[in-house]
Every structure is written in C-alpha cells, then in structure tokens.
C-alpha cells in the first residue's frame, strides 16, 4: 500500500477554510449526492456512514497516530491506514473496497470544490488486488506425513505403491512442484546425480529444480524397485505410475496426499515449501525461481515472512538491538505495553 505524500499540501487550505468542519462538509457532500448525482436515500446513508467512520479514524490520529486530523489534512498514509484498520478488525475485502470507493468519490468532489489541492486516495491499492498468504502446513505436520510414508517405504514388505508415495511426497515438498508438474514428470527428467529435476511448468516453460538428499534417496529406491514393479510389461515414460502401470492423474495425487493428512493438499505442500524456506532465510528471488513464478509479484505474498526473518536476524545480531533486549525487564515491558517492539 502507498503510504507517502498527500496531506501536507492541503494544510494551507485547512487553515484558510477556518475550522475545516467535517460535519458541515459531509452535509454539503450528501446534498451533492442527492441533488446532483441523484443517489437514493439508502445509498446516501451508506456513504455517510462510511465517511463518518473515516472521520472518526482521522480524529483518533489517522495512520500514524500523530494528533487529530480532518478530511482536509488527511494523507495517503491515513487512507491506507484506515483500510488496514478495517482489515484487522475483520471487515471483508469487498466492504473495504466499497469504503475506499466512497472516500475516493468524496475527495474527487473536494478537488472540484477546491477544498484540497491533492487527493490522498491516489495510488492506494484496491483490496481486490491484495494478496493473501496461502495457507501452509507447519514443519512438524509435513515431517509427520513424510515419516508415515517413509516408514511404509522402509518396511520389509514395502510394495511399489509405498515406494511411489514416499518418493512423490518427498519431491512435492522438496521442489515445491505443482500437482500438474508432478504427473507430467518423465523418468528422464530426473537428474539424481546432480540432485535436481527438470520440470515443465505453465506455458511449457522448463526449469531445473534442486532437491535434497532425502528426496534423492527416495527417488532412487522408487526408480530401482517401485516403478519397475508398477510398470510391469507396459511401456510408459511417466515417472509416477498407478497400480495398473498407467500415469498417475492429478486426482490420484490429491487423494494420496489427503489420505495422509486431511488438511493437506499438493498445493498446500507447495506453499509450505516456500513458506518454510523464507522462514529459514531464503530470498524471494530464489523462491520465485524454484516455484517457477514468471512474475516476482506472485512470490511477494511471502514478503511479510521475509520481513519477520529480517527482524529476527536484526535482533539477534545488531549490537544495539541486543542491548535493548538484554536491558532491564521493565524497559522491555514498557516498550511492549506501548506497542513498540523491543
């Protein structure tokens, strides 16, 4: 969200207008909506409620909490802060988008009326473009799933399906592959000697995905024993096969993953891989390459995780941060109670 500029150029106009009375300004705008725009009474009431809510937010200090503000002194940070405030209090994106549209219309009118010089709603992202971090599994949950398939694969009587399921789950998590990419893999796509896999993603774009030693070991055993058993006398290039020797379908992969954990899915494993990597310090460009995202903007849903990681590293490594954290308990508690991070 944009958080700069906006209200400073309007300060002079606030002073020139006297009190900058929000109530009288709202009444004028409601008259404009009823008479000139022809809006119905119920629509006008909804607009008025939204603007009164924004006015109350401004009176409480706006986006930065720096003193009482008015419509005429509001900045872009106040508008984006208002939207974030609504979001944190459980207001749905559609409702926030409507309130933003209302505030935009109001400031368009203020510009026409020469009440303000700049519109603080300019460059504010619409909630429809907000990215929500995909749900992921905890590392312990993924480890439990892998332990289940690993135990079955290590059993003396392990069959081809057990070896396949373990290799497939290891690869889903190690490489963050899409379910469509998993079922499209061919045996010749494996580069186990270099611990990597050649993947064909969206738009037939190919990428090389590195995988870890656990995935390599599971794939080696599956190719040597499990796949041969499932293949039988048929001829197939697909890496992962069904009990009948046919290529696995996406529905089959989903069923296998769901059978291990009803909260899991192939897609959630992909996001779990990305989330866990960022939490352990991976940069977004690396994650973008591994996931096969054409645009870094798609990967930026993980930005806040990277920022949290930076904060943790800063606190652990910066000498001034250490001094603050290791200082008196009352000092730290005082900061926390004031809403400031120690």
Detailed description of the structure:
With 342 residues, the protein is mainly alpha-helical. It folds into two domains: 8-128, Orthogonal Bundle (DNA polymerase, domain 1); 142-268, hpI Integrase, Chain A. Helix content is 58%, strand content 4%. The protein is built from 16 helices and three strands. The protein has helices at residues 11-16, 22-36, 41-59, 76-88, 93-112, 139-154, 160-175, 179-184, 213-231, 250-260, 266-279, 284-291, 296-299, 303-317, 319-325, 329-337; strands at residues 190-191, 196-200, 206-210. Strands 1-2-3 form a three-stranded antiparallel sheet. Helix 7 packs antiparallel against helix 9 (213-231) and helix 7 (160-175) crosses helix 11. The two termini are 25 Å apart. Mean pLDDT is 83; it is low at 1-9, 11-20 and 324-342.
Q: Identify the CATH homologous superfamily of the largest domain.
A: Intergrase catalytic core
Number of domains: 2
What are the segments in which pLDDT stays under 50 over at least 5 consecutive residues?
Answer: 1-9, 11-20, 324-342
Proportion in helices: 55-70%
Number of helices: 16
What is the architecture of the largest domain at the second tier of CATH? Orthogonal Bundle
**Class per helix and strand makeup:** mainly alpha
- Name the overall outline: elongated
What is the distance, rounded to the nearest whole angstrom, between the alpha carbons of the first and last residues?
A: 25 Å
* Total count of strands: 3
Q: Could you tell me the CATH topology label of the largest domain.
A: hpI Integrase, Chain A
Summed over residues and divided by their number, the pLDDT gives a mean of: 83
Neighbour order of strands in the largest sheet: 1-2-3
What sequence of helices (H) and strands (E) makes up the elements?
Answer: HHHHHHHHEEEHHHHHHHH
Strand content: under 5%
Main pleated-sheet profile: 3 strands, antiparallel
